[in-house]
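Hi P.,

Sorry for the delay on this. The queue was packed all week, but I finally got your sequence through. Input first:
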Amino acid sequence: MVFILAPATLVLMVVVVLAAALKEIVRRRNEKQCANVTSKSRRSEDLEIARPATAPGPKALPIFGNIFNLAKYGDCPYEGFTALAKEYGPVYSLYLGSNHAVVISSIDTIKEVLVTKGNMFDARPNIIRFGLYFGGDRQHSLALCDMNTVQKKRINLARSVLMFRTGESHSYEKFKENVISEMPTLTDEIDKALNKPVKAKELLSYCAMNIFTGFICSTKFDYSDPAFRDLARKFDFVFEDINNGHPTDFLPWLAPFFCTYLKDIQDVAAQIRQIILEKICNDKYKQLKCDPTNIKDLADAYFANLLNENKDNETWDWQAILYIIEDLLGGSSAIGNIVMRIFGYVLQNPHVYEKLRAEIDEKIGRNQAPKMNDKSEMIYTQAVVFEVLRLTSSPIVPHVATADTTIGGYAVEKGAIVLPNIFGINTDGELWDEPEKFMPERFIVDGQLKKPGHFIPFSTGKRACVGSKVVGYITFMVVSTVFQKYDVSLPEGTTPVLPKGKISLPWNSFELVFSKREQ
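Then the structure:
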């Protein structure tokens, strides 16, 4: 598609760029003057503690910063981060627009930020899109908010339900019931389209969404329900959007030139909220209002904080709770994308397909459905999932320093954006043997699953993904169920496109062909 700008628009762009350039020049001049004053004051004979040096990095352009250093890497800027790390080291500085950023590319510095000094890096950057996903305020989100006491309690409540102890809690039993009951629904849908190309991502997305709504909200849908299908599609739109960068993320002055795109995000997010309100939350709230002690699921637990007396006098308003439920349900979008990637990699590696199928037949058999507790015995299947996540190298959401501190001995000022380069670690030849190859066996040592300390697909520390356990179990159940019951293949002439540096795939990505296995 070719965009033709009107003369008036071009003039406006020039004016905006010049204004931004002037502002940036003034800002950098002020910084330099402040630095000179500080330098002079430190020439005194008084004893003084030396300030750590700033991390090295490439020279930045006014306004645009180092964006052009990364532009040549196209859809995977993390390849650019990795290339720069080879030149400047595991900790280096960049400017994304006028935003100072620090890129960290070693597991030691990443754990320093996410674990050791987690309290100093628990904020998120102010990106326009982050706010638009949540009604204009990213603080409504669990994943994109800055951390404070209230947010910590909201996240801990979600974690207490989603990070259940296997076999030891009501949450686990409810989750297991929802997963197991959904597998026949998925296979019934596949049976309707045997031996022909199928848009498999749609079915997988409906399956994952239904498990999430059943577990979190005690509500399930028929796959043919138009509102349910629309909800899954819209969630996937947001998931794909958040997995891709955009010029306005770090050049917000470009927003006037992307009004239609930004309005689309805002509209889709509002439509998601309306569907959840009408199809799920209105009825749940009315039921709970009649009996605030009848808490059946995580959604009820959040609403109970609105209805019951709050000893801490906190305000958990209706809108905030609606946004949290939306945020949690949106996590289901990861599963359809991960499972599609597993199919994509496995079907291009026939020896992996055969070993995966053989393990399913040996450990589970052909005549009984997979169970959640089979997962611990399915070493090769888990290794396949790990290897797909390694090659995908989905990025960790950027962090922001909340105080002046250091990373790897280098000074980091309050407000600096910190970018953990997981792609660099997952493709490091010193950490992985032949990292470019698809080799699930790398995660198996002496017949046991081995997860190296430098492999953190769902992040680590207090801001790690609260849904990682749920995602892992659903992925296992879907993969083992499908490969147990069906021969899966790609349509003739199809080669899956599996971009790295993000999990998301297009809604209409590659198709699959399912056929019944012969007994």
